[in-house]
Write a structure and sequence with these properties.
The protein is mainly α and 341 residues long. It has one domain (24-340). 72% of the residues lie in helices and 2% in strands. The chain has helices at 3-73, 75-83, 106-121, 130-137, 139-145, 161-171, 184-204, 211-272, 284-305, 323-340, and strands spanning 95-96, 99-100, 309-310, 320-321.
């Protein structure tokens, strides 16, 4: 074969190979871009799921926390009324199946009442999940902490509004998250760099020219998305477990609160409207109502004391729900209410 034809054949072969390589490279880049877009889309869907789950759980926890703080704040009126009754007996401690309810202690009730008032004063300007964080840590504990001292040396109880709430959050060790409350901040902390990494990888991919590098970036973006997805799913499982428990517990506390208010109203009227301030002047029914009011206050105090979430030991760790203790408190409440019907 003449040399020109040989050279032409080689050139044609090289051109064909180049075209084939170009086609493969183009396909590789196209596949990588599609992987990038899919990873980004799936991650956005995952994070949206987290945001929705977090929002509705925060709302449920805030409702519980608000109820608990209002219950605790009401103890001041109760204590003031009981203190007006002269010659009253020392009310016996209630105990059933090894479970003891706190006895009447005016100083303790005063502390939690004032502390709850401090927290309620800042509830209006608090971020979503903050009041729920108090419930997660135990509203009674949070209320007592509100009487402590801020980092500035100023008594928290002397502060008001958001300042008081923020100071109490700091005293609790970072607030809702350190207390195990969970929420948007928890998700951000747990997801960390994995969440941001996907956006960076996807955004930076357009600057890559070679198919090989783009493919590597696409694979890394997919791995990051899957890592974030696992974290999001874990957080959502926790929040999905916390939300119904908080709602059930709120319903239980509300039942006890309503029963307490019904019974205590008679005592309050007798003392404050009919000026009955001597125990010996009380009727049998009024004495029983007073004793039952004290029992129910002890029960409410204990119900507000429990932490719904077990405190995390490591930052970024997904907390666990305190199902056992909350469930026991609900059973105790049902037993007490059945006896008072």
């Amino acid at each position: 074969m003449p040399l020109p034809f040989i050279v032409g054949a080689v050139a044609a072969g090289a051109a064909a190979a180049g075209v084939g390589s170009g086609v493969k490279g183009a396909k590789k880049m196209k596949d990588a871009n599609e992987t990038m877009k899919l990873a980004d889309k799936r991650h956005n869907e995952n994070f949206k799921k987290f945001e929705i789950t977090s929002e509705i759980t925060n709302e449920a926890m805030d409702r519980l926390g608000l109820l608990q703080l209002k219950v605790l704040q009401s103890f001041e009126t109760f204590s003031d009324t009981i203190e007006k009754i002269q010659n009253r007996p020392k009310f016996a401690e209630y105990s059933k199946d090894g479970v003891e309810f706190p006895t009447y202690d005016k100083e303790t009730l005063k502390k939690v009442s004032v502390g709850a008032g401090v927290l309620l004063g800042g509830a209006g300007g608090a971020a979503a999940g903050t009041i729920g964080g108090f419930a997660a840590a135990g509203a009674t504990t949070s209320a007592v902490m509100a009487l402590g001292t801020a980092s500035t040396g100023t008594a928290i109880a002397s502060l008001s509004g958001a300042a008081a709430t923020n100071a109490t959050l700091a005293a609790l060790g970072g607030g809702a998250i350190a207390a195990g409350g969970g929420g948007i901040a928890l998700g951000t902390a747990v997801l960390g760099a994995a969440t941001a990494g996907i956006g960076i990888l996807v955004g930076g991919a357009i600057f890559n020219i070679t198919g090989g590098k783009l493919s590597d970036k696409a694979d890394e973006a997919w791995r990051q998305m899957e890592k974030a997805e696992r974290s999001i799913n874990e957080i959502c499982r926790y929040l999905d477990e916390l939300r119904p428990l908080s709602e059930t517990y709120r319903d239980s506390i509300l039942l006890v609160k309503n029963k307490y208010e019904t019974i205590f109203n008679g005592v309050y009227e007798a003392v404050n409207y009919r000026d009955k301030t001597d125990w010996y002047d009380f009727t049998k029914e009024e004495k029983l109502a007073t004793e039952n009011s004290i029992l129910l206050v002890g029960l409410l105090y204990k119900m507000c004391q429990v932490n719904l979430v077990n405190k995390v030991e490591t930052e970024g760790e997904v907390p666990t729900v305190n199902k056992e203790e909350v469930g026991q408190n609900i059973r105790n409440a049902n037993e007490v209410l059945e006896q008072l019907i």
